[in-house]
Amino acid sequence: MSIGLPLPYSASAETVRLRCRIGDETLDLAVHRQPAGGDCVLYVHGATFPSALSVAWRMNGQSWLDYLQSAGIDAWAFDFAGYGASQRPAVFSEPADAHPAFGRSVEAAAQIEVVLAHIRRQRPDTPIHLLAHSWGTLPAQLAAIARRDLVARLVLFGPVVPRDGPAMSDSAPAWRLISAADQRPRHRNGLPVDAATPVDEAEIERWCAAYLRTDDHSEYRIPPSVQIPSGPMHDVAEMFAGRVLVDSAAITQPTLIIRGEWDDVTQDVDAMRLFDALVNARDKRDVKIARGNHWMHLQPSRHVLWAETRLFLSEASAREFSAT
Length: 324
Known about the structure:
The chain is α/β, with parallel strands linked by helices. It has nine helices and ten strands. The protein has helices at about 65-70, 105-120, 135-145, 180-185, 200-210, 230-240, 270-275, 300-315, 320-324, and strands at about 15-20, 25-35, 40-45, 75-80, 130-135, 155, 175-180, 225-230, 255-260, 285-290. Strands 1-2-4-3-5-6-9-10 form an eight-stranded mixed sheet, sandwiched between helices. Helix 1 links the parallel strand 3 (about 40-45) and strand 4 (about 75-80). About 50% of the residues are buried.
């Protein structure tokens, strides 16, 4: 099943579908581009919502993709299989506990590699950078390690880092359901008790309504909810239980860790651990932005996030590109 939804990309946006082998089936990935003549940036979304609800979400008339495009960057995004405008796997039509967690980091990294290869065919002599959020930073790192020839720079926004939590079960369902009630509180996660919610109620409800529309079956569930792969959240749980799913020491590309001061997923100790693990990166930086949490890209602090990311990417050089 594929979802054919109107997405909030610019009038100049182009969308293609790429075939990708995932396990025993071949699925279509929806790849979106807002073209410009500069370096290419591919956005990699997180565990619970697709690119249309993150990098392409417009607040006050502008999305992160719009900003990148206006800066002369060839801006790309895609939806992992099981999300947004991409095809749903067969396991979505079966009971959740009938199969293991779908869409884990290794599978996701292979999807990123398919998209990277497509971008290289379209822009053969142009640097390509990866910009990943949350769980998406895990497959993005794997793809950057596997395809050093395709990835020039790496931006890890709110990355997931191993912690020393208690052991957990190795099993997880193939998919899960996420409702608006699950998503709504996340604008406050990590905020001080006396801090105001960064986004007003009307904007939160606009986003929640759009989120539910990313699944054309959501309205038939009680409560209305979106079916998503369980693999990403299982990866996060494993990382927090101490399992290392990515060898960050194998990354050689210049890497930016960027996060909000109230990010409960990437706390100071997490950022320090990842920074220290990037022993072979040609450059590495840790930038913390005031008054933002894990959803900073959907909050007022997004403008600083955008600017800091653009600054880091603008430093890529032709010499650096040839070194990959």
